[in-house]
Amino acid sequence: MFKIIPLLIAIKIFEVLPNPEGADLNKEYIILKNESDYRQELTGLFLDDQQGESPPFNLESYTIAPLGELQLFSSETKISINNDYDEIRILSSNPKPIDTMKIENALEGETYPLGEIKEYQIFPTTVQITEVMPNPEENESTEEWIEIKNTGQAEINLEGLLLDDNEDGSSPWEIPTTKLEPGERTIIFRSESGIALNNSSDSARILTPDGNILSEVPYESTKEGVSYQLITIINLLTNETEESWQWHTPTPGTLNATIFATEGLIETFESNTLEITVNEQIFSFQTSNLNLSQELANTIFTPEQNISLTFETLNGENEIIDYRIETVNNQPETISIEHEKKPLYNQLLPYLTTILAVIALSIYENKKKTPSHNEKASSGGT
What we know:
The protein is mainly β. It folds into three domains: about 10-105, Immunoglobulin-like (Sandwich), CATH 2.60.40; about 125-230, Lamin Tail domain (Immunoglobulin-like), CATH 2.60.40; about 255-325, CATH 2.40.50.320. The chain contains six helices and 25 strands. The chain has helices at about 75, 140-145, 190-195, 295-300, 345-370, 375-380; strands at about 10-15, 30-35, 40, 45-50, 55-60, 65, 70-75, 85-90, 95-105, 125-135, 145-150, 155, 160-165, 175, 180, 185-190, 200-205, 215-220, 225-235, 240-250, 260-270, 275-280, 280-285, 305-315, 315-325. Strands 10, 11, 16, 19, 20, 21, 22, 23, 24 and 25 form a ten-stranded mixed beta sheet that branches. A hairpin with a 5-residue loop joins β8 and β9 (about 95-105). The chain is elongated. The N and C termini lie far apart (about 140 Å).
């Protein structure tokens, strides 16, 4: 197992051969020593000579055994060491010199004396804020807290890292010696750190002393009595897993909540219990936490609708957290048939025929009602 100790790692330049016998090419070497009792990764470290002479050599692929040494030849590092004057340096990624050995008037075939032992602060990168409680039901000045998790495979120490909220918030608080095993979490309360989290928008951050952000969690408006936490969502249909920041029942110092996602066809809804068919199997879900009136719920959860939902299993029951309804269209499909376009007079001919028939019938009726000339004369002579 690899182990990283943030403050007390003595990775130092142990020995240098700047002027080997004969031709110097590819025979110069530098030896680094690990003074800790644990095997160390050199990720984030670089090796070079005096600034600007040789490109820094990345040490990320190397490890050094407990109390062990690492010998690097110039054929590998491409670092050419001057015999009259030079400086060999271990750099951090900033880049900042961690250890330096000065070379002056190197004699042929002789190694250079040990450099000054320096302690290198290696800060763990596997730290993550996983839960924040900014608005507790109890006293905010003592009961606000931030949860930090070691997401790596080795023990880490948070000592020397800084905890704060946003740049304009509380003063950064230096974390004391706090060792975390792989997957372990720790809770830091406001009463200890002095970090006051706003109930409106704010953030929680872990920083290195030089200001690099290792983990940051911003949030907007809060909800009293619930925490903002990194939740695992498992899709039961695809077996895919993702993480999402959500407000949820607090889980300080323990595993964060796990919720599930699925979809199916609504079968029935009675007494706050929804039954849906998923892959030809019927599953029951409770809807009591959705804050829906019974009348509204009866309207929403109607049979033969497709529903996508997320749920959590509590006390043996599946409690719906969120849902989305997809209404099934039961209307018959409208079929459009295109006809050959007819000339305008052909299209109007049926209407014209009807109109002429009506006119003719009107003339005929009027003639029947109007007396003829002979009928008028006969009537006048009586």
